[in-house]
Amino acid sequence: MSIHKLLPLVLFIVTANAVNKHTTTPPMGWNSYNHYSCYANETQIQSNAQALVDLGLASVGYTYVVPDCGWSAKTRTSEGKITWNETFYPSGFPALGKKLHSLGLMFGIYSGAGTWQCHPEGANYLIQASLGHEKEDAQTFSDWGGDYLKYDNCWADGKNFVVYYPNETDPSARFRKMATEIDAVPRDFVYGICQWGVGNNLERWASKIGNNWRMSNDITNAWHSIFRITNQVVPLARYSKPGGYNDMDMLMVGNGVLTPEESRTHFSIWAMEKSPLFIGAALENNLLDADALKIFSNKEVVAINQDLLGRAAELVRRFSEEEYDVWAGPLAGDGMVVAVINWGATERNITINLPDVGIQSAKKARDVWAATDLDGLDTTYSALIPSHGVKLLRLEGLTKAGEYTGKIGSDGTAFKNVYAFTSSSNYTITITPATASRVSLIIDGKNPITRPVSRSGIITDVSLSAGLHELRVSSRTKSLRLALSDFSKEYQDAPASLSFNVDSTISGSKVVDVSYINYDLSFDKAWSGEGLNVLNATFSVNGGKGKTWRFPISGQSWEEVGTMRIELDGFRNGRNVVNITGVEGKMIVKGVEIWG
Ligand code: GLA
């Protein structure tokens, strides 16, 4: 094939990949908005930048400095170029860019896919943004030495400060226009889309053109804001990848409201979700408190954020009445991060079952904030967690859930801590090597049951109630694998009455995967703390006491179904009835899958 025929193909490949060349890990830096609102000036930006260097934060990785809203002038130059407000920035933006570069930092520029910038003074303070001027503004930002573009979404129709979905003009088209223009300029920009996640299918369009995309309304300086944003990232976490991250907003650590525990929890969640980490506190004039500095400087937590796999942790289990969550996600090199978050108002001892995060044991375990190595973990992990606190673990040397090594004695092999996640008579046990055609099993030291073993070592239909057991096998057996037969889970579409019949051959508690839709995004209510992006539903078994769960956002539209795993107690041998009541707001329960 001749060169000129190949050329369009090559160009196509380069354009298609353009966004991912900007960054391989979530961007880190400092942004003026959370502390200075839209009123930061040149001196403040420079002294905060200097402090980033002096406090050692630049060397931890916080290098992008973004003067947020408020910097542009009300009118453009006679050539139609966007320009700076000379009162706030007397030396000008090109000089600011030079200054930042001379400190070894990167220059972030804020604009928006609307007529004017977002500004708390609304129509009383209309200053230039980039809608309709994308080409010349991209060139200007490049001429000024920009390295990052935070692109906001106010005044999208030129008339209303915020244009709510579904009346908003197509955000993907407005944001794509600027993506094309910054890809065309000589400088390499990281493109941060700030559309707040309103409207449908944010990730589907934003991940094609941006490096990170704000997926929620603004963070506020309050603990409830952390819970709200966390509940909105739940369905998006799975899409995180190198060069494409959910942006949970600038950090509030160090802004005087969150306690040190809350700050560590906030920072841990942002880190494991692979959100960009932008410090939003004042660093100049020794304004930063020692706790906050320690948090930002924690290299082990930052390393979780900057992990090259780029995958975000996902919500694995939620215990709403008990007020804690378990989150887990993979790290490069077969490691794993696990976070146990105590959302409650009291310090508590919390025990988690490692099979719930997909593993049976970990040879190496690091309590990240305590900076201590724990003895390896086996099956369970317990810790005292302060109110609003977190246990952040980094695990390595993992064994898959359901894999056990036994202790061989003269009377057979003992397996401790065999974990059944749901009560069922449908467990299968595989033993290696399969030594006999029949073995006896002693479960929890009680009546031995004698069972045939297949050639491949499989014993079927073993009954186990949910929880931990000791299993003794009457033969010499190196390892044991516990699994639930596939046919034992049963999906049922939700009837209008939300009442399900469940037949069981064993009593106890069972795991239930609830399929549901909650796309009731807390946008307007975000500021007051009323909106937490959760809707409640209450479940009861055989008329017993109901238990309530808080269901987070489930997907990217009212069409997308999410699943949350819960556990229900009170099943008995025979026919059971599960009732779901008090389904809040517009939440839809689509069905349940009952394990066991
Ligand atoms: C929007 C953005 C914020 C900040 C403000 C500035 O609300 O989401 O991050 O840039 O505008 O007014």
From TrEMBL:
Specify one Pfam family: Melibiase_2
Task: Give one GO molecular function term.
Answer: alpha-galactosidase activity
Q: Which N-terminal stretch is annotated as signal sequence?
A: 1-18
GO cellular component terms? Answer: extracellular region
The record ties this protein, via SUPFAM superfamilies, to: (Trans)glycosidases, Glycosyl hydrolase domain
- Family listed: Belongs to the glycosyl hydrolase 27 family.
Q: PANTHER family, per this entry?
A: ALPHA-GALACTOSIDASE MEL1 (PTHR11452:SF75), ALPHA-GALACTOSIDASE/ALPHA-N-ACETYLGALACTOSAMINIDASE (PTHR11452)
Instruction: State what protein this is by name.
Output: Alpha-galactosidase
This chain's source organism reads: Pyronema omphalodes (strain CBS 100304) (Pyronema confluens)
